[in-house]
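[#protein-structures] MJ: dropping MFS transporter here for a structure pass
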Amino acid sequence: MLQHDTVPRRQQNRALGLSTLAFTLCFAVWTLFSILGIQIKEDFALSDTQLGLLMATPVLTGSISRLFLGVLTDRFGGRWVFGLLMLVTATCVYLLTFANSYVMLLVGALGIGLAGGSFIVGVAYTSAWFEKERQGTALGIFGAGNVGAAVTNFGAPFLLMAMGWKSTALVYATIMAIMGVAFILLAKEDPQNQSRNAVRLPLSEQFAPLADLRVWRFSLYYFFVFGGFVALALWLPHYLIEVYGLSLSAAGIVAALYTIPASLFRILGGWMSDRYGARRVMYWTFLASVICTFLLSYPPTQYVVDGVRGPVEFTFAMPLVGFILLTMVLGFFMSLGKAAVYKHIPVYYPKSVGLVGGAVGMVGGLGGFFLPLTFGMLNDVIGIWQSCFMLMFVVVAAALMWMHFAIRKAERIEARDRCESTDLPELSTPSRFVLEDWRPEDESFWQSTGRKIATRNLWISIPCLLLAFCIWMVWSMVVAKLPQVGFEYTPNQLFWLAALPGLSGATLRIFYSFTVPIFGGRRFTAISTASLLLPALWIGFAVQNPETPYLVMAIIALLCGFGGGNFASSMANIAFFYPKREKGKALAMNAGLGNLGVSVMQFLVPVVISTGSFVMFTGSGQPMSDTDLLWLQNAGFVWVPFIAIATVAAWFGMNDIASAKSSFKEQSVIFKRKHNWLMCILYTGTFGSFIGFSAGFPLLTKTQFPAIDALQYAFLGPFVGALSRAWTGGLADRFGGARVTFWTFLTMIGGVIGVLFFLMNKDMSIAFYGFFASFMLLFFATGVGNASTFQMIPSIFRKEVPRLMPNLTAAEQLVHAERESAATIGFTSAIAAYGAFLIPKSFGTSISLTGGAEAALIGFIVFYVFCTALTWFYYSRKGAEIELNLDAGPTRKPSAGAAQTQH
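AK: finished. structure tokens for MFS transporter:
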């Protein structure tokens, strides 16, 4: 392997020059829509929000792809990854010229976005050539390839006026393809190539640094300095044309005056980070950015002052010259900040530059996606052009305050320990929040200490989970009202929107299932609760404009899935706090009262959207067809203060358990357990039905009984289901979890038959009442089944683990059983949550294909029959494989080859 001190300076400069040129061209392509979008907007008659989405879509692909491209670069080297990436991007730019609809433009934009992923490929490739003392400067020079945005802003307008947008795209595609081939032919393999080929790290080890919170702190800073740069580079030409009346070519030149210093001075930022330290450079960056964004956010204002001789009028507005100077200063300091952030990565993570840099770049790039999209939405909703800088001011001010708090804390640690801190420990867990000694099975410990702590954590967890369910399901209520405020969507499109939070929530649960032992329950509960602010706020803005594109609404629906993911981590966390004898009741309380959030939401939302009491905070209402007003934005905004309070309570009131730590590898053993997968099926039948019916019931009632105001009654179903789960957990303790689950499925079959009967006889005078009563029976049964299935899981694994791990001591078997039970509880909840997607989508598909929901209901009956048979065969019949009876406790019937079939 070549060492840095043996690499000739000529080879280092060659690698740096090629990668910088390639990145410059990639960045020029990545921001191509900032110019082409202006002509495309006229050709396709796009709104500001649609234009913002089109500009932001390549940034989304470029951001998300950075993580995966970073992994590929760490694994295979930058030469081939960089070259092939440019060839693929060139192909996508060429195919864009065939677009003849807005949807096709968005698809093309997704492909073009891959050019943005080139950044992390170049970072990993370039840093591998340079020694530690020169990496900051080298990466600063490479990062100056951001000047590609200026190339596009300066040159593309002239090509556009001379050739049209399609021919301009062809020119870009040709240049990109030539550069891709040249890079493969001229670039050399980096000095780490031999060691990379000799030792292939497992993916689990390669992804390990992502568990370090330092990575995500760097990501926050990069969200502003890079994401904000990309957002303004895309938005400024449009802003300058509309606000200052400039021509397209003049707007491109002025925008270049922002992007050039925001790119070239990144070199200076790298040198200053090497010389003065990245922390100091970040301070300068944030302080200057706060001042600039504040001044830029001030809208033109007319003042009238009561003077001595009558009213005195004067006007304040930012002149064009002042605007240009302020944006140039802002771009300069952003460039310093970009270099300072990436100075840290090769120092802290020399073997994972691609992965860590990809994660940081991904978050920063997502800023470049969400910010322009939000700029357009703020324009449509607020109607003030300077709102984009107002948002930027809020972001950078928050980052500055957090960083200052973190640095002061680091200084206190330095003074106490008399050593220099090399990191900012703002997200470390203070010792007072960590339970080093936790023995809930010890009766004396439990009575003297444990119960009080566990109870406090439970009662903080419950409102956090309740709010998570509110956000997860609020979209079903919003969707039901969208047509009344001017959104022209088909019934199938509406059911898709109602179903998407279930899809994303279920998928997130798969990951959230394993987070508590890795990150700690207190920390992850607080962070996951805070994440609910994003969909809550975005709902409030998006629903105020009926021209908001369907794709934007779909993205918001997916973000609501953050609430669905929280259930898995919350249940896994509470499971660690309680002894076996009280675990079932505690989980039932946490889940049942958390599930109550669906009912709370369905009760509260109809109230707040029908009142203008909060108009000074949330904006004016939207007119309906009958001239009444509806404040639909309140459906999102109403949760914001409660989420903020719950986040603070979780951060300062909950605890992490030191012994509840394990890696993903240790928890992933559940994927080998047959009963994990069987319980996934059963819990999908109970909880999947509860959450799916909660999401689909309001819209189904609205479509099948249009004369009924479904939102007045929708909350009762989840209310019944949540309370039955919270207060019938004792049934499973008294009669056996398997037996209760068996009868639950039989009851659910009867409930679906009732719904089916009354839908097929809608002309009956009591049709709606019978339909409603049948659904209430379904909700009640799902709540009982939710509690009984979760009661089964710890019993199953306390029997299975000793059989599968006979060489361990009883104490070690107990630890493994608790760990596998917690992981299984989280994972089964993840799989079951797909019911929130499948049930509404089944209703929508059935109505679209057959004109009614009957086909979907028949499918549910078939599935419940299967679940009934599964429960009886494996758990409730006499002589079952694991017989969960009351007399002997869980027993397992030996079978031939059992030891060979499960391992």
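MJ: nice. The chain has a mean pLDDT of 78.
AK: one more thing. The chain is about 75% helix and 5% strand.
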